[in-house]
Amino acid sequence: MLSQAQRSTILELNTQQVSKREIARVLGISRVAVRKVLRANSTTVPQLQRPEKAEPHRQQILELFDQCKGNLVRVHEELLAVSAAYDSSAPH
Question: What pTM did the predictor assign?
Fold first, then answer.
């Protein structure tokens, strides 16, 4: 994600007639990213709207966290074991 400073730099360089390719090279970003900022014509960093993947499993994760005494590696292993059990019981 580009910062507000990077976005304003892109817009400023564009007003100075610097090519998109050169802007991308100088900032070390892709030309697609430069185009998106120029299309938006804004320095505002967009908010990401992503659902949390773990939210439906929150209670199970918290219970495993307690059972595994805070060992997150063990929590992950337990979740994988439960997932594998569901996968093997599914009809093929």
Answer: 0.56
